[in-house]
Amino acid sequence: xxxxxxxxxxxxxxxxxxxxxxxxxxxxxxxxxxxxxxxxxxxxxxxxxxxxxxxxxxxxxxxxxxxxxxxxxxxxxxxxxxxxxxxxxxxxxxxxxxxxxxxxxxxxxxxxxxxxxxxxxxxxxxxxxxxxxxxxxxxxxxxxxxxxxxxxxxxxxxxxxxxxxxxxxxxxxxxxxxxxxxxxxxxxxxxxxxxxxxxxxxxxxxxxxxxxxxxxxxxxxxxxxxxxxxxxxxxxxxxxxxxxxxxxxxxxxxxxxxxxxxxxxxxxxxxxxxxxxxxxxxxxxxxxxxxxxxxxxxxxxxxxxxxxxxxxxxxxxxxxxxxxxxxxxxxxxxxxxxxxxxxxxxxxxxxxxxxxxxxxxxxxxxxxxxxxxxxxxxxxxxxxxxxxxxxxxxxxxxxxxxxxxxxxxxxxxxxxxxxxxxxxxxxxxxxxxxxxxxxxxxxxxxxxxxxxxxxxxxxxxxxxxxxxxxxxxxxxxxxxxxxxxxxxxxxxxxxxxxxxxxxxxxxxxxxxxxxxxxxxxxxxxxxxxxxxxxxxxxxxxxxxxxxxxxxxxxxxxxxxxxxxxxxxxxxxxxxxxxxxxxxxxxxxxxxxxxxxxxxxxxxxxxxxxxxxxxxxxxxxxxxxxxxxxxxxxxxxxxxxxxxxxxxxxxxxxxxxxxxxxxxxxxxxxxxxxxxxxxxxxxxxxxxxxxxxxxxxxxxxxxxxxx
Length: 706
Fold this sequence. Notes:
The protein has 706 residues and is α/β, with parallel strands linked by helices.
C-alpha cells in the first residue's frame, strides 16, 4: 500500500449524510467506504441537521445559523472547509457533484482533486458552459462520472479525445445471498413527483389494481411540494424509509417501476430493484439503461405503455421470473468491485510519477533560442543545445522549441496575434508530447497562463528555469536580469543560475530552490586540443555588445575595453594578442570564432562587470574546453573548483600581464596547465553530467555539482 496521509470526501452541503433521509451521493460514499483500503485515512465532510451519521469518519460543517447578504452559503461552506482541510493536510480531495466547490477550494487548498458528477453537468453551476468544462478538465486531476450518459453530457461540444482523464464508476449494490419469498407487490421508489413519472405510475397502477385485485402497490418516498395522490384501497404510500428497509422491501416484492420522465443520470432504484430479484420496468431515459441488462425499457413513456408492461409481468410468470433470476444472478455494478476500482484510481493519481532515475525514460521539453533566425552562429556557445545533447546521451527524450524563431517566422501585422498563436502552439504541443520536465532559458515569450495550463494538464510536471546572465552588483543590467529571473518564481519548481546563489539572494530573497549551474562543455563542440598545436598567437579574447548582435554598437564601450587598453600597455612587445570586439575589430561567430581561437595558446576569461563569486560567461567553456591556458580573475573564487595546476588566477591587470609574459616563455608549464584544466573541466562539467545534475535536482534528488 502506498504511503497516503488522508483523503477528504466533500459532499454537497445540502446532502444528508445520515440514516435519516440519506441522499444518493451519501449512500455512494458510505457504500464504497466500507470496502476501501483507504477507509482509515478517509474523512467525510458535509452539513446536515441530523445526528445519526452513516459512518464514524464524518465531520459536520455547521451552517444552520448562517445568513448573509454578502456571500452565498456555498462560499461560507468552502471557507469553513478550507480552514479544516489546510490544518489536516489531505493528499486527495474528492468533491461530489459541486463544480463550484472545486473552483473555490482549489484557490485555497493544495491537494490532488477528483470531482464526481452524479448529475447532468450541463445543469450544474460551474460546468454549464464549454469554457467552464474546459477549465474543470484542465484543473482537475481526475473526473469521475456515475454513468456513460453523464460522461457524454460533459463532453458535449468538447473534444472527446480528452476522455482519458476521466472514468466511469457506477453507483453499486452489494449482492444479496438468496432470493426471498415474493409477495404480489408492485413498488415505486423515489420522489413522488412528475419528473420521476409518479403521475404516470398513478394512472397505470390504479388500472392494474382494479384489474388484478389480489395484487398490491406501494410508493416509497416523499415530496414536499404538491404531488399526485393515489387513492386506492390496494395502494399504500409508505413515505421515506431507511435504505436498508427499502432493500428488504424490494426483496419481498415481485415488480419495481422506475418510469422517470427526466434524463436520470443513473437510476439507483433500478439497480437496487433488479439486484433484489424484482422484475424491473424502466423508462429508456438518461443513464437508466446502464443500471441492469435485465429489465423492460419503455421507449414510449405514458400510462398506457406502463400499464401494458406491468400487466405483461403479472400475467406471464415465466417472463417475470426470468427477469428476477437474471437480475439477481447478474448484478451489473457490485460495490466491492467498484470500491477497489476507485482505490486503483487514487493510487495511480498519487503514484504515477515515482521516477526511477536509473531506468525511467524522461520526456523533456527544452525551450530556448536555437538561433535559426541568425543562421545558428551561436551553436558553439548555446547552453540549450548542450543541455539537449546531454539529455539525449542520458537516455532522455527531448523535444526542442525555439520561441524567438517561432515568433520571428510567424510575425504578421499584429505582434499580439503572433504571441497568442505561440501560446496555442505550445499548449497543443504539450498535449501531444506530455513531457515530465520542461526546462527553459532566456525565454520571455511563454506566458504565465501557459505555464499554468501545462501544470493543469500534467499535475506531476516539473518546470525548471535557467539563466546565464550576470547578476553582480554595479552592473547596469543586473536589476533587469534579476527581474527576469524572479518573474517566474511563482510557476517554476527550480531555477539554475551561473552565479553563486548567495549573490542573487543578497539582492532578492524571494526565490526558493535556487541552484548554481556551471557552463557545460560538450565533446562534439569543444573538440580541439590547442595545447597539442603550434598556434601563431599568444593570447586570445573575444567579446561583443550582445550575442544577438553580429556587429559592435557605434559609440558604445564598456569596462572590458579599458581593461584591454591597460593590458596591452603592460604586455611585452613580443606578445601576439588577438582580440575581437575591440577597437574596430568586429566580433566573430561560429566557425570563424574557432579558427581564431585555435590559433592562440592562451585565453583570457574576462566577463562583464565586477568579478563575482563563481560567475563566468560561457566563454570559459570555449577556452578551457578547447585546451587553451586560461586566465581568470581570482575574485571569482574559481580556486574553489580549479587548482593552480589547472588555471592561472590573476589579481589585477599588471599581475595578468606578468603571467602572460611568463607563460609565453615557459611553454612546457603552459601546456601542462592547459591540459590539466581541460581534463578537469570535462570530468566535472561535461554535457552529460550537467544535464543529469539538472534532471536529478529538478526531481528532488540530492546531488552535488562539484
